[in-house]
Amino acid sequence: MNRQEQLLELENEIAKANKEIGDLKSGMTPGQMISVIFLFISIFMIFILSGFFVKFFGLILAFLSILGIIGASNQKSERVSWLEQRCTDLECEIEKKKQEWLEEDNRKQEELKKNEEKKLYKFLDEVFVVGTNYRPDRNKPFEELLEVDYSTYDEYWDTITTSNFELVAEPENQVDSNAIKVIVEGYFIGYISRKRNKMLKKYLDKNNYIIGGEVKISGGMGYDINDRFKRLPIRYDLNLKIKKKD
Predict the structure, then answer these.
(1) Would you call 102 helix, strand, or coil by DSSP?
(2) What are the residues facing 118 on neighbouring strands?
């Protein structure tokens, strides 16, 4: 069953429920009609016919008819209430399905976009910056972008982004000749991890590749691995988009 058929089925249920509500409100139920008929019969027996037992039976029949009318009216009210709630639930279900379909379509569009980007870019992934704790300027990009002093920053974990970054090879590095420095907002804040730097090194050739993307900078108050609430070290994540020059 496709989306249109699902919506049509739900809308038909709502239409049927609304029609039944209208019929109930504008007329009498079979139970009410039978009780009214017996009430008229009892009135005829009480006021028209003669005889003690006939009138006595008429009074009993009138009492039972009134109880029947009350009971049928209560059932009618309960049915109307149930149908109205059913309509509300069905309308909510329709909205829920529309929202689910919208989210599904958005996911598909996002997947298509990512697939197109994968075709366009040689490298498309998020890379974590390491070694930031050893860099004296590690807090500078966060401080300058938000215009704060991180040593006294007491806001909850916050994230900002910037596209002002650069990757610079550091072949003279004594520990790893494939080292790649990460420069954000003009400050040297860390390195690409060893797991990625050897593979990314070839893309640093500016004559053949264009490095784009953004840096996600996160910092502020939060819970550490020991569940202590404190000011956490600033984290840098590179969302790299590298493509070959035309």
Answers:
(1) helix
(2) none
Which residue's entry shows tokens 């059932």?
75
pLDDT at 118 over 80: no
Residue 121, both tokens: 């870019």
Q: Which two tokens stand for residue 188?
A: 């040297």
The pLDDT assigned to 170 comes to 94
Cα radius of gyration (the chain): 38
**Across 17-25, average pLDDT:** 91
pLDDT tens digits for range 182-237: 999 999 999 999 999 999 999 999 889 999 999 999 999 998 888 889 999 999 99
CB-based contact 46:55 (threshold 8 Å): yes
CB 221 within 8 A of CB 154: yes
Helix or strand (DSSP H, E) at 245: none
Q: Which residues contact 10 (CB under 8 A, 6 or more apart)?
A: 90, 93, 94, 97
**All residues at 6 or more sequence positions from 192 whose CB lies less than 8 Å from its CB, including other chains:** 127, 129, 130, 167, 179, 180, 182, 200, 238
Q: How far apart are CA 60 and CA 39, in angstroms?
A: 10
Locus of tokens 């000749």: 177
Query: Residue 73 and residue 23: Cα distance in Å, rounded?
Result: 14
Instruction: Read off the pTM.
Output: 0.58
